[in-house]
Design brief:
Elements: E1 2-6, H1 15-27, E2 34-38, H2 44-50, E3 54-56, H3 69-79, E4 84-88, E5 92-93, H4 98-108, E6 113-116, E7 119-121, H5 134-145, E8 147-148, E9 156-160, H6 179-189, E10 194-196, E11 204-206, H7 215-229, E12 243-245, E13 251-253, H8 258-281, H9 285-288
Parallel strand pairs: 1-2, 1-4, 2-3, 6-10, 7-11, 10-12
Antiparallel strand pairs: 4-9, 5-11, 6-9, 7-8, 12-13
């Protein structure tokens, strides 16, 4: 019932080992999932063949040459044969309980967004997930030697096929990417439940070097993406989930503490301020930070 898609880095160390570990965990999921690998980076075609995944080498890019996430979503939808999709970073090892949990959540509410935080862990070895004890040992390591990442980061998104095909042209890579914030914000705007499954499954992120993104380029993409999103007030994250799945598998409404309620009011004020400045004064973060107007700038502005 699920198709997973991702954009891997080149399969050179340490990402060769890291991405093979991740993809091996995806291939071991039952029932089997369809997998789509995007991009023409070295080793991607061979990895797709190894894990019986669909390989789509063509990826649209922005003027900086950075891949665009919305193109991945649109293209994945045209090739998806399942009712649900999952966008997952290629360094993420997935819990074998994930398919069963997804089935449970979508039985409760078919139109839903499922998200998860990750456990950061140093791994130096290749893993074999055909061994029954491979993942339980990994979970123990993650919870003892690893660290649960901040609520600002989300590495797993599962949703009905095509739900987010209206995504603006966000770029990949920190700090330019804001697609994760937009996905949660978009779901909440449409009244779609957002379910946090962090407590019910262990999502393992394998620590690695940052990857050497060019800072000036990524800084410019940050401001462009912030305009696409609609300003800081639209930076929704996993704390904006409406529900969560507890460790014992119960789906419950998420209770928001007083600081989160204050944050909600503050972000509403931020959204109203940005919209006023943009619509009446022509403000944009890109122009305010010296980024020249481009031919696609009209498409880069968030439409509320």
């Amino acid at each position: 019932m699920l198709t997973l898609f991702t954009l891997p880095r080149p399969f050179v160390e340490p990402f060769d080992r890291i991405q093979h570990n991740a993809l091996a965990s995806w291939a071991a999921l039952t029932p089997a999932t369809q997998v789509i690998l995007f991009g023409g980076e070295s080793g991607t075609r061979e990895a797709a063949a190894k894990y019986a995944a669909l390989h789509i080498p063509e990826v649209e890019r922005n003027t900086f040459g950075t891949p665009l996430v919305n193109h991945l979503f649109l293209t994945a939808t045209t090739h998806t044969r399942t009712p649900y999709q999952g966008f997952v970073n290629a360094d993420i090892i997935l819990d074998p309980q994930l398919p069963a949990l997804v089935s449970k959540v979508v039985s409760w509410q078919p139109r839903v967004l499922i998200v998860s935080r990750r456990w950061d862990l140093d791994l130096s070895e290749a893993l074999v997930f055909s061994q029954n004890n491979a993942f339980p040992e990994l979970v123990q390591r993650a919870h003892t030697a690893g660290q649960l990442y901040s609520h600002h980061g989300m590495d797993v998104f599962i949703f009905p096929t095509g739900m987010f095909d209206d995504m603006p042209p966000f770029s990949v890579g920190w700090p330019g990417a804001k697609y994760d914030n937009w996905i949660v914000y978009s779901a909440r705007r449409r009244g779609i439940p957002v379910v946090d499954i962090t407590d019910a499954v262990t999502t393992v992120h394998q620590n690695h070097p940052a990857g050497g993104n060019a800072r000036p380029k990524k800084a410019q993409e940050h401001w462009i993406s912030l305009d696409l999103l609609g300003g800081h007030g639209c930076c929704f994250d996993i704390l904006d989930a409406t529900h969560l799945v507890t460790a014992d598998g119960k789906i419950t409404r998420r209770r928001k503490a007083l600081p989160e309620q204050r944050r909600r009011v503050f972000r509403l004020a931020q959204r109203l301020r940005y919209r006023f400045r943009h619509r009446l004064l022509g403000f944009s973060y890109a122009r305010a930070n010296g980024i020249a107007r481009g031919k696609n700038e009209d498409q880069m502005i968030h439409r509320s």
